Amino acid sequence: PKVEPSTDFTGMWMRDSRVGFSYAPLDSWNYTPVGQALVDQFDESQNPQLDCENPGPPKSTLLPYPLRITSPEPGMIVLDYDMRDQRRVFRLDAEPETGMPSKTGTSRAWMEGDELVVETTNFIADRWGSYTGVDSSSQNRLTERFSLSYDGFKLRIQITLIDPVYLLDRIESD
Q: pLDDT under 70 in the chain at which residues?
C-alpha cells in the first residue's frame, strides 16, 4: 500500500533513529539537589519498566517506540503509545474535566496556526517520569508542540518541561 502524508497529525509515527536516545540521565539538565541526588544514584536496574510500570509524559513521548495518533471524531485527538497500555485523549478548544491526578495528567489542547499545542498539569509523582533516572513530581507542568514537516511525512514534537522539585530550569527538548 502507498503511504500517504498526514495533514492532521494522524498516523503511526516512529522516532528518527538519527536523533538517538540516552538511557542515562542527561548531563545538560540543571537539577535541584533532590534531582541531582537521583542522577548521582542512577542505576539501570531501578528502571520502572522492569517492573512493568509505564511512565507518563514526557518520558512516554520521548521513548523510542512508535506513537499512533488518531482523530476518531472532529475536535478529538488520541495518542496511543506502542508497547505500553497508555492512551491520552485531547479535545481541542475545550476545558478538560479535571479528575484525579494521574501519570498522564490533565491536558487541554488547541491549535496555534499549524501547530497542535497540548498543555498538561494535574500529575502524580512518577518514577523516571521526566527522563531516564529523573522522576517527575505532582508539580510537573508540560507543554508539547506538535507540527508536521512541509511534506507531511515527519512529526516534530517540541517539549517544555517545568518541575521545581527536580529541575532548576525549564527544559526545552526537540
A: 16-22
